[in-house]
Each structure stands twice: as structure tokens, then as C-alpha cells.
What we know:
This protein is mainly α and 61 residues long. The protein is built from one helix and no strands. It has one helix at residues 2-60. The protein starts with a helix and ends with a helix. Residues 1-20 are annotated as: Disordered.
Amino acid sequence: MIKNLKKEEDKTNEINKTKELEEKIVKLEQQLKSQQEDEDYKEWLKEKEMRKKKKQKDFEM
Length: 61
């Protein structure tokens, strides 16, 4: 009886640990996606600025 309770407790603990890890993974994936989107946006802004400068340079010539 006590062994069965211990086994159930161990299973419950393992399930809880797994859920915590899954939540951490989801959170980290969201952070990574957000970071990548930020980097993509910054890169897009750089490219936009470069095109703008090129147009100005071409116009001045």
C-alpha cells in the first residue's frame, strides 16, 4: 500500500516536472521568436535606410 502511494507520488512529481519543463520551453521559444522578429525588423530598417541613401545619391548625380 505504502509502496503504491510512493509510486503514485513519484509519477505525480514526474508529471509536474514535465509540465514545468514544457512551460519553460514554450516561454523560451516565444522569447526566441520575439528576438528574431526584432532582429529581422532592425535588418529591414537598415536595408530601407540604405535604399533611401542610394536613391538620394543617385538623384544628386
